[in-house]
Amino acid sequence: MSNDKHTPPGNGKPVLSTAPDVLAGRGRRTVHLGDLLFGGSARASSLIIVVVVLIIGAFLLGNAWQPLLDNTANFFASTTFDASSRPPHFGVAALLWTTVLSSLIALLIAVPVAVGIALLLTQYVGGRVSRWIGFVIDLLAAVPSVIFGLWGIKVLGPALQPVAHWIQAHLGWFPLFGSTQVTSPGTVFTASLVLALMILPIITAVTRDVFSQTPREQIEAALALGATRWEVIRMAVLPYGRSGATAAAMLGLGRALGETIAVMLILSASSFDVSVFSGGETFASVIARNAAEFDTTYKAGIYISAGLVLFVLTFAVNALARIVAERGKAKS
């Protein structure tokens, strides 16, 4: 009797059994040369990015190591950054404050505007109107940083001075809005508004894409239950896109932290002050402003130490944005 057939009880029809070699054939997957090449190139590309980041970090640390060892000031607490003294006396407290403060204010201004524009484009208007508005917002990303800087110091800054005086008159009791000796428009307040315009396109683009992917079934179900347009946004769109909007905000923050030319053109050099109506320096602007002093490896290493802090800070912000986005995908 053949092993390839068997007759079940009550049924005289033979049933073919699955041979082991057929099962093995079904379990095997044909591997094509193109798949191998594409997979290998993708892995190599990701490995190259990791290696480049490690090389940059090693370069910054290697050049900043000796000046940091010779530094006579508290690197993280001192507000003095003097690269000309020997031994060097420099700290990043003032740079860190100005960098983080201007970036956070820019984020507080840009995120609500970006979310509002994204909701407008995905939930209220559509078709040609939505495309044109999105096109205009995206054009802001094509404006060079130097143009933003010149416009900020020549046009926006003087226009904002009456607003700054009003805020100082009514909220000057709070140190963040206190009066300073800086009378020029080159303040952290002006730089923050310019940074808000610069990071607006990237936050808007990412948030718009996230909101547009809200499942249509959820929106239609809410409308069928009698929900208004705002209730649909509050109950369906915003919960679905919360993690994506948060990640977009973090990416915008990383962009603001590293901005150089616009901030350098706007900010006036001054002594350290916590007020937003004072001048100051950011990590990127102090490096760019003093690039002519990189005549020796040792002096360049002092400024590279500031770049090392900015590198770690920006890397941490972008990593956090990635983590938030991945958690949002897992929940959805």
UniProtKB/TrEMBL annotation:
GO cellular component entries: plasma membrane
Regions that span the bilayer: 36-61, 94-120, 132-153, 186-206, 300-321
Keywords in alphabetical order: Cell membrane, Membrane, Phosphate transport, Transmembrane, Transmembrane helix, Transport
Subcellular location: Cell membrane
Annotated ranges, domain ABC transmembrane type-1: 96-321
NCBIfam families linked to this entry: phosphate_pstC
Designated name of the protein: Phosphate transport system permease protein
One GO MF term attached to the UniProt entry: phosphate transmembrane transporter activity
A Gene Ontology biological process term: phosphate ion transport
Main subcellular location: membrane
Keyword Transmembrane helix: yes
Source organism: Arachnia propionica
Function (record text): Part of the binding-protein-dependent transport system for phosphate; probably responsible for the translocation of the substrate across the membrane.
Entry membrane topology: Multi-pass membrane protein
Family per similarity comment: Belongs to the binding-protein-dependent transport system permease family. CysTW subfamily.
Lineage of the organism: Bacteria, Bacillati, Actinomycetota, Actinomycetes, Propionibacteriales
CDD domains in alphabetical order: TM_PBP2
One Pfam family from the record: BPD_transp_1
InterPro entries: MetI-like (IPR000515), MetI-like_sf (IPR035906), Phosphate_PstC (IPR011864), Phosphate_Transport_Permease (IPR051124)
Alphabetical list of Gene3D superfamilies matching this protein: MetI-like (1.10.3720.10)
